[in-house]
Amino acid sequence: QLISAAAVVASNNAYEATAWKTYLFFVAILTFGTVGNIWGNRILGRWNDCALYWSILSVVITSIILLSMSEKTDAKQVFTDFNNETGWSDGVAWILGLLQSALSLIGFDVVLHLTEEMPNPSRDAPRAMLLAVVIGGITGFVFILVILFCLTDPATVLASSTGMPIVEMFLQSTKSRVAATILALMLSVCFINGTSASITSASRLLYSMARDKGIVCHKFFAHIQPKLDVPVRTIMLCYIFNLLFGLLYLGPTVAFSAYIASCTIFLNVSYACPVIALLVRGRSLLAEYQTNKTPAKMGLRVGAVINGIAAAFVVVTSIFFCFPAGIPVSANTMNYVSPVVGGFYLLLAVHWFTGGKDFQGPVI
């Protein structure tokens, strides 16, 4: 969408950003990430390092340009005004507004899917997870403040012909189509890098699950291509899956929105399950796997408090994320996340009883 919006701005609205054109951009980016994961395995580490610096640099450059060139709103409006047009109470509307921020901070578990390829996973994996949250939280907080201070005309920005309010905001701030296009493409590169990293993580996760007989056709997918030293079959599974589900973008908006929102809930639930299980059984179980040299330990009390807060946050927000964005509700504004989540867990239950007996968990 950012690339399509950049094309609209660069062409002075001569380019029409239709759904199928945006899907083709999606296919191109997905193909690029897939090819990089299959034949570029040796450079993935440095690619991801560059992606980190690019993301931080993009936030810094964009923030400086917006703050230096845009008109400003006052601090009172940024920090104290609360505009609720959802029909819900202010508390519910605030929780519903967490969906986008929650979506931007999930996925920090991807490093765990690569621990078998790390030289010191017991030290580096927890550190990477913490740094992902810290860096993402800081840059996200700074960037949202910049946007709020520079958002002087919300109505025009939201009604932009580009289809992406942030790109319209770039155009309003810089008064230059060239500058707005460059800024939009800078952010697009961040998503391209993220696509490649997501394929890397998901393919490793699928491979390890197949090796442990945890998915269907596990014998076929538990395979490493000898010459390339990567799980090509699971990489291609990710590619085909994303191609098919990307077609939802060509259909009703509510279907695509339900799919995107369900991803947040699925990941949240996957984080909450082991945390809740640990709270129920007691953190003393961890002592068997920890020594004085264990690099990441929180202790019984501090760990229990953090686990409790994390579990409560995930459970509460996941429930509210199933609510419609506003009321009253129509067929076009209804939130269809609940049937999507319910249908998916029904499939999981069927697989649990039919294929779960074959699963052999990893040796810890």
Automatic annotation (TrEMBL):
Q: Which GO terms describe its molecular function?
A: transmembrane transporter activity
Q: Where are the transmembrane segments?
A: 20-39, 51-71, 91-115, 127-149, 178-207, 228-250, 256-280, 300-327, 333-354
GO terms for cellular component = membrane
Q: Which domain of life is it from?
A: Eukaryota
The residues forming the signal peptide are none
> Where found?
Membrane
| Keywords, comma-separated and alphabetical | Membrane, Transmembrane, Transmembrane helix, Transport
InterPro entries, A to Z: AA/rel_permease1
Q: How does it sit in the membrane?
A: Multi-pass membrane protein
User: Can you say what this protein is called?
Assistant: Choline transport protein
Species of provenance = Fusarium sporotrichioides
